[in-house]
Specification:
Structural class of chain A: alpha+beta
Radius of gyration of chain A: 28 Å
CATH topology of one domain in chain B: Rossmann fold
Strand order of the largest sheet of chain B: 1-14-13-17-15-16
Shape of chain A: elongated
Low-confidence stretches of chain A: none
Largest sheet of chain B: 6 strands, mixed
CATH topology of the largest domain in chain A: Alpha-Beta Plaits
CATH architecture of the largest domain in chain A: 2-Layer Sandwich
Order of helices and strands of chain A: HHHHEHHEEHEEHHEEHEH
Oligomer: heterodimer
Structural class of chain B: alpha/beta
Mean pLDDT of chain B: 91
Helix content of chain A: 25-40%
Strand content of chain B: 15-25%
Number of strands of chain B: 17
Largest interface: A-B, 20 and 26 residues
CATH class of the largest domain in chain A: Alpha Beta
Strand order of the largest sheet of chain A: 1-4
Shape of chain B: globular
Number of strands of chain A: 8
Radius of gyration of chain B: 21 Å
Number of domains of chain A: 3
């Protein structure tokens, strides 16, 4: 064994390491860029999905904008109250979290409920299907159900079942990407506590709306009469609920002849069972 | 014979799908009622000027031009009573205004349709306004208003008019029959356009799979100065505007530019015939030849009035041979699916192709095997297999860097792909998204 060659190689490597080490440590001092520690701290408080709901290209850009004071620190919709508090801590200021929002599908046109116009067997995209004679469902306001929203959801909150989209409120970060993508605009951002929803926006006259979907809002106005808080109004042929005025009593849900007003969460199950009992 | 790069020969073993109808003469069919869509073409929708209950004559304007230079009037195609003016779902994403007319079978024309006029009586300036007033839009499929195409912008010039008689699409034989049966109308249309734009060279381009049409057009255009007839290789999409210009003149239309950038104007043969009728006889555009093929009992070339319900036209052909699975308006490669057989055809519907349920079945997409057949087929010189990844990912910038906007949506790549990938559909989707993003919408 040639010990000298081994030692020589080791020596050369050690020497090279020493030289590079000196050069690098010099360069590190000489070309140092001052990083604002606060930007890194704010960035760490963000979810990191780069969803773009804040209006910036990603979480890094948003963090820089917050520290520079260009945007309010509660602007991260996906992070919600948690992110707002963490940003407040990082910056040493008080941040009031924005009202938490959640995406809601304003349609109940599942297979069998909304009538089909034709069988769509093409490219799996709602936008493409919508451009062919207004989509595979007769109702031109209905969820097309091919999942452009689910494909683009950064949080995996959307699943397609029975021909319409379902959004898991526990996962949805309220970023609004899906609402922007939907060619039919059936997804709307609503405050998380808005539990009573009119889930139809068909603005055609009652006869037409009813002929294409059994759960279409026909604008009959029974919910408007029932509402004690003046929260429901019929405009453009369908009812809308003002979530600021709504007291979530659920009376409108019981009177709706088309079952197109729904109550979210546990209250929904109670109502369903009440309805079933009444039917029996 | 020179030709563009790429291209395919769809349904080669079935004579390009043309065998069933190519020897059937044009037959006129007038239905009991028509439904004329007012917004089913490029440009602003026309504004209806008749109401329910009005009596109309053939050729009477039922809608006035929409705002802007692209506006066109629409004329009644049959005489009778207007039964409704209503918004109805059509092949596009939004419903369009339609005028429904019930036929009285008197076929009364409006006054003022003069007989054949002589060429010498027509001034060049009067030609383009006459084309607009007749409501003529491109009859090859894209239905772009013809008077706009013929209005050469300031600073540009035009030195060649090409009449597109290639009819490279599968199933369609309507243009072939038109060239065989009324070649004089086509030649006259070309002469009028040449006169209007004071162009001295006109070319009628015909693919070599239509020898009878070639002969007939050659005979009609003999001894006319400046008019050539050019025989082209049978290849799809030979009739694509940019491909045709390249084949005929050797000039390549730059990316994102219109044919006028290389001093050329291309018109379909049916459009040319309509121009002759409009200018020489004062007849507005109310009818066209449509090939009805596929799964119908007796395929035919029918002369249909604008707005004929496709179900009626199929009924005239003996009805469906089997349970229909899909009905395409246009040819087999670029046709748009109709939602049912109760929608009307329009002036740009060159064919109605019916597929049975088995043929309509879509194929499952398989992984790309990088064979490169799509690259060889693409007439625009794109790389469809790479482009598709960007389109599936929704990457607008990436897709533009692969020149998705130069895609002419001819379907050659999808036809050739051994993995049955949805190439063309994804490119069309991306082009729509980019158009939306350019308008300021959310392009995602």
């Amino acid at each position: 064994m040639n010990w000298i060659a081994i030692l020589l190689a080791l020596g050369v490597m050690a020497l090279l390491g020493l030289v590079f080490g000196i050069v690098l440590s010099f360069a590190a001092k000489k070309f140092q860029v001052d990083v604002d520690e606060r930007v890194a701290n704010v960035r760490a408080a963000l979810p990191g999905a780069n969803c773009g709901a804040c209006g910036y290209v990603g979480c890094d850009a948003f963090a820089e904008a917050v520290v520079a004071g260009k945007t309010p620190p509660n602007g991260c919709r996906a992070g919600g109250a948690g992110a707002a508090a963490a940003i407040g801590e990082a910056l040493g200021i008080e941040v009031t979290p924005a009202a938490p929002m959640v995406a809601c599908v304003i349609c109940q046109g599942t297979a069998g409920v909304a009538k089909d116009r034709y069988k769509y067997d093409g490219y799996r995209s709602c936008r493409v299907a919508a451009s062919l004679s207004g989509g595979p469902k007769e109702c031109r306001f209905a969820c097309i159900g091919l999942g452009d929203c689910a494909y683009n959801c950064k949080f995996g909150a959307i699943t397609m079942r029975d021909g319409i989209a379902y959004i898991d409120k526990n996962i949805c970060a309220g970023c609004g990407t899906c609402a922007g993508i939907c060619p039919r605009r059936v997804i709307e951002l609503k405050p998380l506590n808005a539990q009573v929803l009119v889930r139809c926006r068909n603005s055609d006259v009652a006869r037409e709306a009813r002929s294409v979907c059994t759960r279409a809002c026909i604008g009959c106005g029974r919910c408007v009469k029932e509402c004690a808080y003046d929260a429901i109004h019929v405009e453009d042929g369908f009812a809308r609920i003002d979530s600021a005025k709504c007291a979530r009593c659920g009376k409108c849900v019981t009177v709706c002849p088309c079952k197109c007003i729904t109550l979210a969460g546990a209250a929904q199950d109670l109502l369903e069972s009440a309805r079933n009992n009444a039917a029996v | 014979m020179s030709s563009f790069r790429g291209g395919i020969h769809p349904m080669k073993r079935q004579h390009g799908g043309k065998r069933p109808t190519r020897d059937l003469p044009i037959r006129e069919f007038i239905s009991d009622s028509v439904c004329i869509p007012l917004g089913a073409r490029q440009g602003p929708p026309s504004v209806p000027c008749v109401k329910k209950g009005d009596a109309v004559k053939v050729g009477q304007p039922i809608a006035l031009p929409g705002p802007g230079p692209l506006g066109l009037p629409v004329h009644a195609s049959i005489s009778g009573k207007v039964t409704d003016v209503v918004r109805m779902a059509y092949t596009g994403d939004t419903p369009v205004m339609c005028v429904l007319i019930e036929n009285d079978f008197h076929n009364t024309w409006i006054d003022g349709i003069y007989g054949q006029r002589e060429f010498s009586a027509i001034t060049p300036e009067s030609i383009i306004p006459a084309i607009r007033d007749a409501g003529i839009c491109g009859m090859g499929g894209a239905s772009f208003p013809t008077h706009v195409k013929l209005s050469i912008p300031e600073g540009a010039r035009c030195d060649i008019i090409i009449i597109n008689g290639t009819e490279c699409e599968t199933f369609l034989t309507a243009d072939d029959r038109l060239m065989r049966e009324t070649p004089m109308r086509i030649v006259n249309g070309l002469r009028l356009v040449m006169r209007a734009l004071s162009v001295s060279r006109g070319v009628i381009a015909i693919e070599d799979n239509k020898p009878e049409a070639l002969k007939s057009i050659l005979a009609a255009s003999a001894n006319l100065p400046g008019i050539e007839v050019k025989k082209l290789r049978t290849s799809y999409p030979q009739g694509g505007e940019k491909q045709l210009i390249l084949t005929v003149t050797g000039r390549e239309v730059p990316s994102g530019k219109l044919p006028v950038a290389v001093n050329a104007v291309v018109l379909n043969v049916a459009t040319s015939a309509a121009i002759a009728d409009a200018v020489l006889q004062g007849k507005p555009l109310i009818e066209r030849v449509t090939t009805i093929a596929g799964c119908v009992k007796t395929p035919a070339n029918l002369l249909l009035r604008n707005g004929t319900i496709i179900g009626d036209a199929i009924g005239e052909c003996g009805g469906y041979a089997k349970t229909p699975g899909k009905i395409a308006l246009g040819g087999g490669m670029t046709g748009i699916c109709a939602p049912n057989d109760q929608v009307p055809m329009t002036i740009s519907t060159s064919g109605i192709v019916v597929y049975d349920e088995e043929e309509a079945q879509s194929l499952d997409e398989q992984p790309c095997i990088r064979c490169g057949k799509c690259v060889g087929a693409c007439p625009s010189g794109l790389r469809p297999y790479i482009l598709k990844h960007y389109c599936d990912e929704g990457d607008l910038i990436g897709a533009q860097s692969e020149h998705v906007l130069d895609c002419i949506v001819c379907g050659s790549c999808s036809y050739e792909c051994p993995a049955q990938r949805w190439l063309t559909a994804s490119f069309k989707n991306m082009k729509d998204k980019l158009a939306l993003a350019a308008k300021g919408g959310n392009g995602k």
